[in-house]
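Marked as duplicate of an earlier ticket. Keeping the data here for the record.
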Amino acid sequence: MNQKNCNRMIDGVIFDVDGTLLDTMPVWHDAGARFLATLGIQAEPGLGDLLFEETVETGAQYLIDHYGLTMSIPEIARGIDEQVEQFYFREADFKPGARELLQQMYDVGIHLTVATSTHRRCIEAAFDRLGIRGLFEGIFTCSEVGATKNNPAIFYAAEDCMQTQPEYTWVFEDGLYAIRTAEAAGFRTVGVYDPVSEKDREEIIRTADFYYESLADFDLLCSGDDEEAVAGVSMSGVPCIGAKDAAGTGVCAEAGRRSENES
């Protein structure tokens, strides 16, 4: 686990979805190659890595430029979407510990939003099926924001929705490029391991404020009265709410509470 100094209030959390909350990265990583295969075209080695940081639209443009496709961007985007859409609608499941972490954060009043490169319809379908859509105050997609996660616009949009400040807002991500963007924009960052990001693991550990192999490593404990909860990260490496490690050196801060009329 990587840990930097973190004596900060935690008002809100912005979650990536693919590779962080849901175990969807393998099917998404290969979607471009699968689409090309339907056209009888052999994809170049590493195409999935090349498209990893792109939206569907910018990825479609790459395929047009590099494979001479005569299809339009919307046609290609739809073809790529079809490779993964049914997976979200029928099969996509949580990564270990994700469901429990989301519910515990929600229960202690931490504001939750999503920032994702995947289209809204896929995320909403998976969240509805898994019963977690109501935990989030907003879902923000790169396509709708008009920028990839190389640009902090999507994180600022999520932060604005929660009415929090970047230094009191945490971003959970498995992708190095997104962690770098969030870190540079002043957000606190938590790196989460995913096999697709294995090649960047050491750099993610160096870059993120905290790093965990699994969300199941988190141990959130409700504490405080009805007016206030305490949230922080213990020096032992287990984020906790209302707890310190055995040495009494836990790093803790207040977490914002939802008002009764907030959803």
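See parent ticket for discussion. DSSP finds eleven helices and nine strands in the chain.
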